[in-house]
Amino acid sequence: MRFLHTADWHIGKKLHGYNLLEDQLHAFNQIIQLAKKEAVDGIIIAGDLYDRSVPSVDAVEVFNQMIIELNLEEKLPVFAISGNHDSSIRLETGGPWFKQSDFYLHTRLEQAFQPIEVGDTQLFLLPYFEPIAARLYFENDEIRTIEKAMEFVTAEIKKNFKSGMAHVLVSHFFAAGSAKSDSETKLTVGGLDTVPLDLLRDFDYVALGHLHNKDALISDQIRYSGSPLKFSLSERKQEKGVWIVDISEQSCQLEFHRIQPLREIKELQGTFQELAKQEFYESIDRKDFMFIQLTDRSVIPNMMYQLRKVYPNILGVERVYGRENDQKGLTKDVNMKQLSPLELSRQFFEEMTEEELTSQQEQWLNESLDSVQQKERGK
Question: Gene3D superfamilies per the record (predicted)?
Answer without folding.
Answer: 3.60.21.10
